[in-house]
Amino acid sequence: MTLDQMQPRPARAIPVPRTVTDTMEPAGPQVCDDMTVEVALSLMVGARTEHLLICDNDGLCTGLVTQAQLTAVRDSSAYTDRIQLRDILDDRGPFASPVTTMAEAEHSMRDRSLAALPVVDEYGSALGILAFAR
């Protein structure tokens, strides 16, 4: 018997689906939902970011806004300098959890035409952002 024949055969590895935790970016700037659109835009320019995570007074993530969304609000005829971020958020979410698979997250983002998706823990605190590469 040769040495090759004595080597145990490797068991077939079952691929483990990648989760959003494997590819998410750090959460980045998080702001309170009472911030005005104009201040949020200034912050985004200063931080050189394309999106902000919005949190409520309890620190729970309520959504995400992009620079393009804020610019569209500012340029609309209904704009006033009193409009706060909470006024422009549609609903709470959508969000991904750390155990959401990449396939599920990509499907959800494509269906909703999202460029970025907040990743939150079971309590609603922001952990990071899943963003499509540009």
UniProtKB/TrEMBL annotation:
<feature type="domain" description="CBS">
    <location>
        <begin position="31"/>
        <end position="70"/>
    </location>
</feature>
<dbReference type="Pfam" id="PF00571">
    <property type="entry name" value="CBS"/>
</dbReference>
<dbReference type="InterPro" id="IPR000644">
    <property type="entry name" value="CBS_dom"/>
</dbReference>
<protein>
    <submittedName>
        <fullName>CBS domain-containing protein</fullName>
    </submittedName>
</protein>
<dbReference type="InterPro" id="IPR046342">
    <property type="entry name" value="CBS_dom_sf"/>
</dbReference>
<dbReference type="InterPro" id="IPR051257">
    <property type="entry name" value="Diverse_CBS-Domain"/>
</dbReference>
<keyword id="KW-0129">CBS domain</keyword>
<feature type="domain" description="CBS">
    <location>
        <begin position="94"/>
        <end position="130"/>
    </location>
</feature>
